[in-house]
Design brief:
heterotrimer; A: about 160 residues; Ubiquitin-like (UB roll); DNA polymerase, domain 1; 2 domains; 5 helices; about 15% strand; B: about 800 residues; Aldehyde Oxidoreductase, domain 4; Aldehyde Oxidoreductase, domain 3; 3 domains; 7-stranded mixed beta sheet; 5-stranded mixed beta sheet; about 30% helix
Amino acid sequence: MSRKHAIQVQVNGEVHDALVAPRLLLADLLREELDLTGTHLGCEHGVCGACTVLVDGRPVRACLMFAVQADGCDIQTVEGLARDTELHPVQQAFNDNHGMQCGFCTPGFLISTVALLEANPEPTEDEVLDMLGGHLCRCTGYQNIVASVRQAAVDLRREGSQA
Amino acid sequence: MTAARPKYVGNAVKRREDARLLRGRGRFVADIKLPGMVYMALVRSPMAHARITGIDTSRALAQRGVLAAISYDDIRGEVEPLPLAERGEVLGDTDVPADHVTAQQSTAIGPIACIDLMPDSTAVLQTVLADGKVRYVGEPVVAVVATDPYLAEDALELVDVDYEPLEPVVDLLAAAGDGAPLLYDELGTNVFTTVRQEVGDVDAAFAAADRTYAETFRIHRYAPVPMETRGVVADADPVDRRVTLYSSTQFPHLARGFLASSLSIPESRIRVVAPDVGGGFGAKCEFYPEEVLAPLLSLRLGRPVKWIEDRREHMISSTHAREQIHEIEAAVDADGMVTAVRARSHTNNGAAASTLAITPTSIFSAMLRGPYRIPHYRVEAKAVFTNKTPLAVYRGAGHPQAAFCMERMMDIIARDLGVDRAEFRRRNMLTSAELPSDRGTEIVLAGKVVYDSGDYPRCLDMALELMDYEGFQREQEAARAQGRHLGLGICAYVEETAIGPYETATVRVDAAGKVTVITGSCPQGQGHVTAFSQLVADEFEIDLEDVTVLYGDTDVVADGVGTFASRSGAIGGAAARQAASKVRMKAMELAAHILEIDPGDLEWTDGGASVKGVPGRRLTLGELATRATAWNTDLPEGMSFNLDETHHHQAPGIAFGNATHIAVVEVDVRTGKVDILRYGVVHDCGTVINPLIVDGQVHGGVVQGLGGTMLEELVYDDEGQPLSTSFADYLLPTAAEVPHIVTQHLEIPTPLNPYGMKGAGEGGAVGSPGALVNAIDDALSPLGVRLTTDGPYSPSRVLELIDAARNGR
Amino acid sequence: MKPADFEYVRPSSVLEAVEALAASPDDAKILAGGQSLVPMMNFRLATPALLVDINRIPELDVVEARDGGIVIGAATRQADVEASALVLQHCPLLAEGLGHVGHPQLRTRGTVVGSLVHADPAAETPAVALALGARVTVSGPGGARTIAAADFFETYFTTDVAPDEVATEVWFPSAPEGSGSAFVEIARRPGDFAMVGVAATLRVADGNIVSAAVAVSGMADRPVRLGGVEAALEGARSDVATFAAVAPTAADEEGLRPSDDVHATGAYRRTVLPVLVEQALTTAARRAAGTGERNGR
């Protein structure tokens, strides 16, 4: 049994201390230790994207990172997106466009979309497809997801210009 | 005077389910945590066919944190064996086959049920752990339990199982033939069911034919692969032996029955809960060993037991789909009418009879002729065991294969006759004047195939116009002149939907006038909450937000069947609306009683009963609900308490949906890459509840069909070793691979449903393989290529086909 | 699919990393991006007893100009390299190749050096390194040494890096005046490993090809330089006629041993290679002439 490591992580603005085995995946730290089950495990080898979270602002596969590596990092999960009673514009866009069905893959899509639009408020079609290529959905056939992302980009730009 | 309320049914209402899931507050089975919960993991066979000569779990049990490790020998004698007299029947007295199973039923923990065996099927049901023999890579052999999932997986490596290899058979036709290694010695064959259907006089029609055609079509193996794998949390109380099973399932009530049978515990002591389910598509309308093992171990340990399937396990132990070979012959008369079809068909069912094992074979055999008249028909379809993972249903379940074969055949014949393939189809299609049409075939569990409603020629014509068929011919010619290869493919199909036997709904109203709908339907993303809310809100003329829909928990939903075979919108929805209607009529009757007027003087508007012409004299739904409780003593004679009614909607027959799909592709003949340029669907599911939801289902189905046709393949080597066991090998489509899909609805209501609704969930996956392959064939036919498989059309395979055609092979 | 147990250390210097490795060289693995290693660990195909995490060694997170080229540290993320102005200007072939590596969500963690050390024969970065003549610096108990790309890749997932060594940086030469490059691949889906990948760079003067380098992935157990194609290009006119004539010869190059797998046959790879070579050369030539965008975006 290997030595456990003490870590401190900030998740959705809250600081947490944990004592973790090195092999504990970041996804399992979030889901099991912190009860943030919105981040889903669909493959555990980095392909499906359902486990995508933001680590220091960048989209990362939580199934390919060990919790111990996240020591001192600032993590945002899907649970941190909504603004109190209102949905985040990206979330709202997915609802407006029927961009989700079963909801299992959705948190990953939301996180990646938020990251893309934050870094690149006016992405090209290719840039959107490039980002979406890192996520699998089995329910929607993607068409409404693409529409959701397009609308979210417009909505966020409008919000930004009104601020 | 209240303002007129918009109707919900028929409108693109945004989904109510979304907010919770968008916020990451879903509760999928992997999210469930119970105090004291421990974790199960499974040792699975690494061999396709072998005898188990020894199992040693001592090293695993010695490991810290490991609480149990069991093989079939440990659970064989768990419960009293059946008394001798019954055993005699089950053991196969020649004149009384009590079940259609052979003599393995004397063991205590019951086998996995198969509910669609046919009267002359011979099958051996799957045991929950391997009993002395393994028959597929992935078969569960030993179940271990540990205090965390990491330790549970560690423990697997400490279990020693010795195998004596047996010769495996994976090739479908070889397995069906003589001399093949047998999976079940006692059966004497690997062919466990032969379905025969016959209509008219096929041989005479072939004898009189002007031309005949014969093709062999190969359908490859792929799988539903939902994004959420399977999983269970079993919470059993060992003292009163009450079991709660949370399971990522499409049919909690049926699962309860299967579990009761397997564990010999009455259904009344079992609660099954389908929490949020992340996609099912047929892989989860199956009952699996883990759904028995986890409760069993929970009973033994007195603690909740969780098992979450990992993706590698999923690829080898969740049911596979599609794999079939069909030899099809068609007879065409001098007028260019297809008069007869003969088919010999085989399905590769893998190593065991799954819960819905025969359905793909049965549906294929019943539906091959699709929308075409073809008055004479005969099929012999065999379901065959091989040493692969068990096969079951997947979105379409036999229809995609039937549509593929028939539509390929129609293209082949049309090309040979020099007739335009759209015209050829139109000519052969049943018209709406010919419906209802008894097709003379039957589908197991569902019943007789009688096409009830639809206008197939009109659907075809709408699709041709939607996709500018005329314009494409010119586009294709111009492209050919430039050395580019464009193709267009048509796939017209008819599908069984809305199958019975029934679905239930209970509708009740509270004192505030808010309505609760309790449904036996069980969503995995199809939007039932929204759709049923629309139906019920319209029935009462109340706001959508005033409806709550409950589902999935057998303690809450007393009776139900579940979600599969495109039935929930139509059958579940009908039950919900009819229950609501019953409540509304009861409320009217109560209102008349309270207001002391004739019921004929009342009208129902905007969630209440008003006196006609006197809008001020009105009782709202909430007021009526309050007056109906048992706190009151003055109800009309014979009226039961509460605005609370249940309706069982029994489907009087199968309602048949239909559609035409058209795909346009470009093939790069230097690299073999296929680019799907455009895709369109004209879809008839009768009355549409929510076009947003229906379109979403069509998109999802089309992309699954696209995945199967272009990317997905479950590959096995000759030793029965699966080679596609991760998302690195098994490729799913991403947003980059999919074309924009245009859809149009043709609403031809079915007389078999009180609201004209037919099913809509599966069609997208039924039409896409045929449309795409016909398009690729159309693009490559100038090169002499003729396609007879359903893919996957990897660039490598496409170049091979072009090369073979060039070399006259 | 949970990984087997392991010990974990996070050194803060290269020296510490080397010491950690030295303590258990046969059973330790360097953890950089983890995008290749961790999936293997989750499948338990890799079960190192010790992971040495180099992600927070400050001197390894670097992209800088040095010695007529660009140096990229072992902890530098592919996403940062792809977006680096220095790389876009001086090493566009690397930036372009990186655009084909997996997906953006993997490139936020994945590293260029890690991809080279992992040495998947179908990967893009090794082919780019080979085409450009990159050099990898490794540190071990005996000190540091530099390995040329031509000597770096040995066979499937195997490089010249010893078990007690850690790769610390890779140097790519700056693209000279008058050069143009292109990375072209054919994959089942964008971001998948290439069935065949071609990394090409040309240096052109007065319309003639002064020098050419063409390296391919997916055609053998490691990336391969198409020496015959390169020789035929040198001195020839930089035009489509040249490329149309030379590209077909790529299929018969020495050292090509394309194999069959679930995605494509070896025969397919050999058939498609010339098509990609021609495409890559045409694009590289266009960029050398300055009439095309620098890096394919």
